[in-house]
Predict the structure.
Amino acid sequence: MTTSAQLDQEVAEKCEAYKAIHAAWNELTKAWSLPVIHSLGIREPARFNELKRRIDGISSTSLADRLTELERLGIIQRKVYPASPPRVEYSLTDKGKDLLNVLHQFADWAKRWERNPPAPAP
């Protein structure tokens, strides 16, 4: 195999490895996903209307869609308590808590570079 072909193979393998990162990023950056995760990270468990009050500007439909999607992804869990009417609470799964830690690290990175932007190139 030529050096050029080896380099092409290495690039292709790295691109393939990053596909999972890109897919996860695209899921998480859908409208309202991060505010829902952060809201649950503040205090959990939380009921639907409590989350709606915490997240300024979110509609009931958008919140319901995000909760369903984040539950499908295994980031939040929905617990139904048998009562009349049924009581439903949402909380972060272990996967969601792990993601929240990553988001906190990302926030630290964003704050650090917001205060210390790189110097312009000469």
Remarks:
- Strands lie at 76-81, 87-92.
- The chain is about 65% helix and 10% strand.
- The radius of gyration is 20 Å.
